[in-house]
Q: What sequence folds into this?
């Protein structure tokens, strides 16, 4: 890049090098068709719907949002906008789609309107008659009817409303499910396309969160129900509804004990499977439900004295031969493993991350084999436990399979490669139209301290050994997210920071995933102590190994939990951290959501000392270092009141600090906002650390 501004402009224009990259892959027509979303190039933000015919090798764009909405997209329906925020989807245009039956037809929502399109070359999308502001469409098996949500009611087209007008929200995933439990859907067709399983959500007991736009004081404030730690959760029920209306059947389980529904769906016309969890997520139960009577039967139960670690995608599940597949910890918490009917299949050397279904008579598994920064794709024989690598080179590998077809995506320092292996042995590639990554970054991955903490170090290009560099700790540190990964896009901005004259350090402290269950569970009943102890220890260990790191000039930056870490650094360890930029920081977890916070910290009524210890508000009088606070004023995940409360406490204590408020910006800054904030952070760190 010719200058610091060139990278920021390119990063903003390409949405951090994601525009034009294919995503949301699905196989259809017994593996013959590969559906996906992709824009037309590096600066095109509008995703279109495409299909690749694996027989002819031809890609066809089936639906372009600009053709369907020539006058412009307008506003997203509120429910869809919030769902995109929950899943961190920044692309415009077609956000998602759903296939019917054999997968030759797709339906999708486009800014409140619904469309269907077949995979035929010359087919044109047809609009589906629907109520205003419709979203989350789902076709039945033969594609003759489409279920969708509008104004918190569940509809079918052709047809009409199928959910009762009882004041509840129907067919949606509540905040806790979508934000924290990885369930983003609230309705599912039966295999025969006659009935629907639907979530009924009542949020009357929840407090309301309000957002006013200070740029537009003439507009009314927006609000939504938020499940704050220690407070009530949404009341979630599951009902079987006829597509033509009429009385429904409620699924019966102990919802008072198991309020969270993390997964649901039809196993057959006669059986529904659902996964439920208790409030503190120490017990996860897989249930079989009779759609006629609503009665449920327990199939498997997973327990942990602290919390059941993030559910391994694809488990618990019933295999095609009827056996039960579950995820278990190996003795001592050394690895996350798979078990069939309670018998472990994998051991300490395999960190299982996901089960992708069956392929070639075996289970297709994503796992870590060597270093936690990498991910491999394996085939697991459930009879013998034998593992066969499909993609096991350095980097991060993912897969998708159907009817013998296999799509492998590999990411490493050289970029991304997507290879489609057809059932008859041919290989095809899926075109990637994204901007090539400007930097080839090779972070120095190292494990440090007695805990084997994963770290990464990025130095300026052309760095001359012996030249001392100020350090920028750029990290997340919170549970559920791995920062030290061989996935190449996440190192582009860090290389830019390094080229501004910093040694950039990233640390995955205990509590983060994929090292081992024991490593992850070390954060039980306390964020701050473990997070900061490991970050400081790792930083010092790297300083001993790399004498060019000047630990007398250390800045720290981060967003969300990383913002919490950054602010905590200068408040509690000014001897280590000399300046901090804290973005969207949850400064007091008593005001964060139930499902996330209580999983790790418990109930605030029962663990008040834990919440007090992890709150930053009481640390305000201790500030002696430069601190920049940044927050979007439309953030419905970490409400801006978190940062404003800390700013108020700092002001009351007479502690100077800077506050950058971003009107209209959510927890997921888009449209170049991140890059503009980076430019301001750079100026801040140069001044705070005394850099030229």
A:
């Amino acid at each position: 890049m010719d200058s610091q501004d060139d990278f920021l402009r390119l990063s903003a224009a390409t949405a951090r090098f994601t525009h034009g990259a294919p995503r949301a892959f699905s196989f259809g027509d017994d593996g013959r068709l590969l559906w996906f979303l992709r824009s037309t190039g590096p600066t095109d933000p509008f995703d279109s719907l495409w299909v690749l015919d694996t027989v002819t090798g031809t890609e066809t764009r089936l639906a372009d949002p600009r053709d369907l909405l020539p006058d412009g997209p307008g506003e997203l329906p509120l429910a869809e906008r919030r769902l995109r925020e929950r899943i961190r989807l920044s692309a415009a245009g077609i956000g998602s789609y759903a296939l019917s039956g054999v997968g030759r037809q797709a339906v999708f929502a486009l800014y409140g309107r619904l469309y269907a399109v077949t995979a035929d070359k010359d087919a044109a999308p047809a609009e589906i008659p629907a109520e205003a502001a419709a979203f989350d469409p789902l076709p039945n098996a033969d594609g003759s009817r489409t279920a969708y949500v509008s104004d918190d009611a569940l509809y079918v087209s052709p047809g009409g409303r199928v959910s009762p007008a009882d004041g509840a929200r129907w067919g949606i995933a509540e905040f806790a499910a979508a934000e924290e439990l990885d369930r983003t859907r609230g309705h599912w067709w039966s295999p025969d396309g006659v009935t629907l399983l639907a979530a009924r959500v009542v949020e009357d007991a929840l407090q309301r969160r309000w957002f006013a736009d200070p740029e537009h004081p003439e507009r009314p404030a927006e609000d939504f129900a938020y499940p704050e730690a220690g407070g009530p959760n949404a009341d979630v029920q599951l009902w079987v509804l006829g597509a033509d209306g009429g009385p429904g059947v409620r699924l019966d389980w102990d919802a008072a004990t198991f309020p969270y529904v993390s997964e649901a769906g039809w196993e057959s016309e006669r059986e529904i499977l659902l996964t439920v969890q208790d409030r503190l997520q120490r017990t996860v139960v897989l249930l079989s439900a009779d759609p006629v009577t609503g009665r449920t039967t327990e199939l498997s139960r997973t327990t942990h004295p602290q919390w059941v670690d993030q559910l391994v995608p694809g488990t618990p599940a019933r295999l095609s031969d009827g056996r039960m597949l579950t995820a278990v910890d190996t003795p001592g918490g050394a690895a996350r493993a798979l078990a069939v009917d309670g018998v472990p299949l994998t051991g300490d050397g395999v960190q299982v991350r996901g089960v992708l279904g069956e392929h070639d008579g075996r289970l297709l598994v994503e796992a870590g084999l060597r270093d936690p920064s990498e991910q491999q794709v394996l085939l697991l024989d459930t009879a013998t436990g034998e593992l066969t690598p499909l993609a096991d080179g350095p980097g991060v590998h993912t897969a998708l399979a159907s009817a013998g077809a296999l799509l492998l995506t590999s990411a490493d320092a050289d970029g991304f490669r997507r290879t489609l292996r057809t059932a008859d042995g041919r290989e095809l590639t899926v075109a990637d139209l994204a901007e090539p990554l400007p930097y080839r970054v090779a972070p120095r991955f190292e494990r440090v301290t007695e805990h084997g903490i994963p770290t990464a170090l990025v130095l300026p290009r052309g760095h001359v050994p012996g030249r001392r560099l100020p350090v920028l700790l750029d990290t997340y540190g919170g549970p559920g997210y791995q920062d030290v990964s061989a996935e190449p896009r996440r190192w582009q901005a860090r290389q830019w920071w390094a080229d501004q004259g910093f040694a950039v350090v990233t640390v995955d402290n205990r509590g983060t995933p994929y090292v081992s269950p024991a490593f992850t569970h070390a954060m039980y009943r306390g964020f701050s102590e473990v997070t900061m102890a490991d970050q400081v220890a790792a930083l010092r260990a790297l300083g001993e190994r790399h004498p060019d790191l000047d630990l007398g000039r250390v800045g720290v930056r981060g967003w969300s939990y990383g913002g919490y870490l950054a602010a905590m650094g200068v408040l509690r360890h000014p001897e280590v951290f000399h300046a901090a930029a804290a973005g969207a920081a949850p400064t007091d977890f008593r005001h964060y959501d139930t499902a996330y916070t209580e999983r790790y910290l418990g109930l605030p009524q029962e663990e008040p000392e834990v919440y007090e210890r992890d709150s930053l508000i009481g640390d305000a009088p201790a500030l002696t270092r430069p601190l920049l606070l940044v927050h979007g004023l439309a953030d419905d995940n970490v409400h801006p009141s978190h940062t404003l409360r800390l700013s108020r406490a700092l002001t009351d204590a007479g502690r100077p600090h800077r506050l950058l408020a971003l009107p209209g910006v959510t927890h997921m800054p888009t449209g170049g906002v991140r890059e503009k904030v980076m430019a301001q952070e750079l100026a801040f760190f140069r001044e705070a650390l005394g850099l030229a």
About this structure: The longest strand covers residues 549-559. The radius of gyration is 25 Å.
